[in-house]
Known about the structure:
With 136 residues, the chain is α/β, with parallel strands linked by helices. It is 46% helix and 18% strand. It is built from five helices and five strands, in the order βαβαβαβαβα. The chain has a five-stranded parallel β-sheet, with helices on both faces. Helix 3 (70-83) runs parallel beside helix 4.
Amino acid sequence: MAGSHPIKILVAKMGLDGHDRGAMVLCRAFRDAGMEVIYSGLFATPDRVAQIAQDEDVDAIAMSLLNGAHNTLFLRVIGELKKKKMGDVLVMGGGIIPDSDKKKLEKAGLNGVFGPGAPLPAIIEHVKKNVPKARR
């Protein structure tokens, strides 16, 4: 728990990636772990993701992308959050992300980059461990 409320997490699907099974699995896993889950729906834009995050006052964003546009779209979300002065939100990304891109994404502000087959308990623990730090 972050503070006195359940962790509120936005699961976001951006770009032209219509593969939502992984995002749906994450939504359910986060919900079952006691978190409040908001889902962006398919084809969200980075500015829309940042706006939802602001409107809903989320503690974390979990972005799922399988089409290779992570270096563009994930970084745009981080940029939009900075514009909104929301640097305390935990931002994670997952999908088909080459190891060579992980360091760049982490340096830009992603706290957690997960690939296919990442264990759900590890992702949930990462959120629980890192959200309180991000929201203090």
